[in-house]
Design brief:
This protein is α+β, with helices and mostly antiparallel strands. The protein has helices at about 1-25, 135-144, and strands at about 30-40, 55-60, 65-70, 80-85, 95, 100, 105-115, 125-135.
Length: about 140
Amino acid sequence: MKKFVYFLFALSLLILFISVLLIFLRDLTVVELPVEVHVNGSLGFGFDLNDSKLNFGNLLPGSSSTRYFSITSPYDFPTYAEITVDGDISSLLRFDDLTSFLPRETRKIGITVLIDEDARMEDYSGVVLVHFRRVYVEEFYQDK
């Protein structure tokens, strides 16, 4: 009987620990930003004033381009944003994958597309995902 009580106590602690981890490690917000590039034999203008998408325009194999977007932390406490990419464009993009934010801070994030010399002539697209997560103050100031 005593072993069973210890087992239930240990199981309860494990469930509590997992619950706390799930609460603190989950995404607070995920911002999605569509992204695309057209790799072809002609160079086109890369201007796109659409702020709801990162459009790199037409690029030649062996070229690169950088686009910037601004993002604001909507929270009254320090956060960090982890950036990931889904889609066939993911292998072409370079960026800082982790950025810390002060409360309500706006940051300018740069994303560069690098087209290999032997890249296929086609359209590449995907979604940039910005995952806001809670950060503890001690961790935040160690990064600064």
